[in-house]
Amino acid sequence: MKKHSVLVVVHGYSGDQRQIEELMPMYEHHGYPVVIASPADSPITKVGPHICITAGKKCYIGQDSWDRQHLQLKSLLQFPQDWFLLNDSDSFVLTPELPDYLFRDDNIVWSNEVDDFRKPGESWQGNPPWPKDYHKGYPLIAMQPPYFLSRKALQKIVDASAGLQACPICPFIDWWWIPASYKAGVKHRRFTGCASCETVTPMGLAVMSQCIRERQATFIHSVKSGSVMQQLKAIYDQTKP
Rounded to whole angstroms, how far apart are CA atoms 117 and 143? Predict the structure, then answer.
């Protein structure tokens, strides 16, 4: 069977380099080219034999982070691949093989999804209520890594997201994907077998482990070390169908 043309991308800051190197087996095991994307003012310049590119400014949330997201995605269009697997420095796919359903529709962006705890008109921990028009017209979710999409969908999102203004209430990249996709006319879907949970605390690691055991989760976020990666991979290998 002919292999698909896929580019594996890892987004991170210079301070994430060791983490990326520890998780690199999960990026390399797909057998596709790997590109590391980092901000111009916090660059990662060399990770093994892999290509490193830079664009945008270092910023966790806010307008600079939204602008960087647009610029880095735009930079990926210089590569010839037809499909793109986009990871943050703490996300990966446990299996070398990418499921066939990802390649059936070139107008979908796939991701992890979590619910937004902010609800229009409701308050949280004694704070003033969120505006009643908060994210009106959009689903109240966050799209979290990994992401997977076609060149066609990537081009549409890049074209639509130029100048996209950061939400003052929710200025995170995992929200950026929602208006960017809707403006572009690109559908969004949640991976089958995905899990998005911190794994730094014992409770978070237990939750992630349970997702892998009971739901065979393979699209994983968030893992900060090679030792946890190896632990989760061992759990999957013991329980996979």
Answer: 13
